[in-house]
Amino acid sequence: YTLSDTLSLHDALPISVRAVRRAEELARERALFVSAVSHELRTPLAALRLHAEMLAKGLVSEERKPRVFGELVTETARLTRLVENVLEASRIGENRRSIERAPRDLAELTRGAIAAMERTVASRGFSVSPPAGEPVVASIDAAALELIVVNLIDNALKYAAGYEPQAIELRVTCEGDAAVLRVRDHGPGIAPGEREKVFERFYRAPMPDLDHKPGTGLGLSLVRELARAHGGEALVADTKGAGTTVEVRLPAA
Q1: Would the pTM count as exceeding 0.85?
Q2: What digits encode the pLDDT tens for the residues 149-164?
Q3: Which of 69, 124, 126, 205 is the 20 to 30 A CA-CA neighbour of 158?
């Protein structure tokens, strides 16, 4: 080898090391992804199969049928949200997610997303306070905004369960050049040292009985990724009293 060959090999080494580390990181992410999604799929699929078999065998009384049908709808909606999150995460990871922004009322879109979660929220014993007040116009992709709101509500339902009051509050304001959506629950809150980590894919903040709570660790990461795709941001804000407030800032129109 010549001196120039030796230097070339030396210069190439860090690049190959980075490539190997990136490949290992991607392999770990894929493994976590498959494990989390597989685990999360089992519960709604098991519930759907059980209820369907009971109905098929005539094991459900007429009095209980409305409840069983309601559970079927709830579990189907849960499965749909999971699939939508997986597909969205895949599109973002492969840079296939295009954001089609247009001036839209953030408050109105938020209320529409809340309506889509109405049955799920009620089945968990929660109430949701929708945003009130004047329209707040922002440059928004409507489908992405619905996914943001649905994931924020779903996250609150999971982690604030068992805490009082079982209420989720959504507020929309205009602050300078930003339209701001805040979603607050009254759960255990998130420690300051965990507030950035919860936006990482597959990360779940350490909490009591966490293993018993459903979740893939995708929800908040999608919220931030979609907010940033708009040119905005998502963060965990300070909350007076108990609970967690997630703030999503989008460019005002």
Answers
A1: no
A2: 999 999 999 899 999 9
A3: 69
With a cut of 50, which residues of the chain have pLDDT below it?
1-4, 6-7
Report the length, in residues, of the chain. Answer: 253
Instruction: Tell me the per-residue pLDDT of 119-133, one tens digit each, with 9 for 90 and over.
Output: 889 989 999 999 988
Contacts 24+ apart (CB under 8 A), 201-208: 201/29, 201/32, 201/33, 201/89, 202/29, 202/32, 202/33, 202/36, 207/159
151 alpha carbon, distance to own chain's centre: 3
DSSP string, 67-124: HHHHHHHHHHHHHHHHHHHHHHHHHHHTT------EEEEHHHHHHHHHHHTHHHHHHT
Kind of pairing between the strands at 178-185 and 233-237: unpaired
- Tell me the C-alpha distance between 58 and 68, whole Å: 12
Q: At what angle do helices 65-93 and 3-56 cross, to 10 degrees?
A: 170
